[in-house]
Amino acid sequence: MTSYMAEVAKLLGVELEEVFRLEKYESYFRFTREYLESSLDGNDWSMANSLTLLAILNGTATIKKLPWKPEYNKKYYIPSIGNTSGYDSFYWQRDNLDEKYYNLGIICKSKEEAIALRQKMLAVAKKKNE
Q: Core-most of 21, 38, 43, 81, by most CB within 10 Å?
């Protein structure tokens, strides 16, 4: 039996196992090789209602991608105003500081991304002070 879930996920702009939200839905969702799954907390997963999959396929439910989150013990970057390099780096430990940065939306995959975000932040601050 051939599974087309990877192709369906790709057509919708997500990867297998990538967690996403749907506009106007409270749950988290992800495609697996077998199912569309849902979770209230992002930890415990079960097969989603088939009407949810239908809503995604017919366009009445819109996928909202979540910001990138590093895997455990992987390096990430954040913009830094006080550091002359323009960024700081940390290792993802799932601690309060990591979650704080994630919830602020400042977690970056690369130094260059963090520096670019820093420039945007400084531009907003400069505009506010004009």
A: 38
